[in-house]
Amino acid sequence: MAKSRRERRLRRLKKHKVMNDVEVSKDTSEAPEVSKEPAKKEYRNVFSRIYDTQYKRLVLIPLILLLLAFIVLGVNMATTGDFMNRGVSLKGGLTLTIPSEEPISILELEVALNSEFPANDIVVRGLSELGVQRGVIIEADITPDEREGFIFFVEGRTGIDEELYSIEEIGSSLGASFFKQTMIAVLFAFVFMGLVVFWYFRTLVPSGAVILAAFSDIVVTLAIVNLMGMKIGTAGIAAFLMLIGYSVDTDILLSTRVLKRTEGTVMKRVYGAMKTGLTMNGSTIVAVTAALILADSEVIKQIMTIILIGLFVDIINTWIQNVSILRYYLEKKGIK
Predict the structure, then answer these.
(1) Global pTM value
(2) How far apart are CA 52 and CA 292, in angstroms?
(3) In the chain, where are the structural domains located?
(4) Chain centre to alpha carbon of residue 94
């Protein structure tokens, strides 16, 4: 009797232990799934936390870039008398395109020309096809009186007959007229862009943020191009006009998502616009880079270089400067 009672007690203890082990195993297997849910709602990287909380400090980055750009343009104005490095098409002068089967030392030719004509602004560039040099392009602000002597000197240095040259000559007055007209075109484009933005948003701060971002894109890109020593021609001005359109495109996307929509928080709407905007920028950067690598035309290369620089500058001005202004504006209105 005592033995059967002891056996029943042992069986109950074993059954209780097995049930406890099952409950513990369930708790341990379910614990990680519960802990994953809150983690998905939190920012998982440092950039997101800084971007969300330190936007008033981050806005200093594009403002400092704009200030540095003004300094670069001012120095260029003081040293050259112009805020941008104008090419022959905007300043007047002579452009020689010289085909060659044999490689020509661009550096040696440029040094020789600058030594012979020290008072003139002379630039020598390579003319290539699929990475193979096919000739050179010489741009110089040569006057009509110096034309024959300049061509004769180039002919002697390269050993290539003048009859093979492609010669383009633009008078200084015509170049100055081109420059004036292109500047007027840029100014009108910017003014009309501003009017359309003000008409669409009908609010001073968001409209001003879009215009400031476009203005910053132009100024900072121009300063970088000046530092690169690029001579800007009429093609370069066309690139800046295109850059205004690219800039306004992403800025209006951001402002529309943040101001016109009401679902979610402001930052959720910003991240939604950023996903679309950066996808647009990324695809354009890939296309422009491919054109820059594959193009043989110097005109196309200049356009693509300016647009490529402007797109990277626009990312900073749109997603840091414009976002910071819009967030500050909405917080003042009590919207978060």
Answers:
(1) 0.77
(2) 36
(3) 58-85+173-333, 93-170
(4) 32
> Residue 335 has which token pair?
């919207």
The closest of 82, 78, 101, 79 to 90, measured between CA atoms, is 82
Report domain 58-85+173-333's class: mainly alpha
Q: Is the four-CA dihedral 225, 227, 231, 237 of positive or negative sign?
A: positive
Distance CA(60)–CA(317), nearest Å, equals 11
The count of other CB atoms within 10 Å of the CB of residue 300 is 14
CATH 3.30.450 fits 93-170, yes or no: no
Q: Along the 336 residues of the chain, how does pLDDT read in single tens digits?
A: 445 655 666 566 555 554 555 454 444 444 444 444 444 445 456 767 777 777 788 889 999 999 999 999 999 999 888 888 888 878 878 888 888 888 888 888 888 888 888 877 888 888 777 667 778 888 888 877 888 888 888 888 888 888 888 888 877 777 778 788 888 888 888 889 889 888 988 888 888 999 999 999 999 999 999 999 888 888 888 899 899 888 888 898 998 888 888 787 888 888 889 899 999 999 999 999 998 888 877 788 889 999 999 999 999 999 999 999 998 888 887 766
Q: Give the tokens for residue 326.
A: 């819009």
Per DSSP bridges, beta strands 166-170 and 93-99 are antiparallel
Residue 117 phi, psi (nearest 5): -125, 70
334: left (phi over 0), alpha (psi -120 to 50) or beta: left
Q: How far apart are CA 280 and CA 277, in angstroms?
A: 5
> Cβ(321)–Cβ(212) under 8 Å?
yes
Which distant-in-sequence residues (6+ apart) come within 8 Å of 12 by Cβ? Answer: none
**Angle separating helix axes 298-316 and 60-80, nearest 10 degrees:** 140
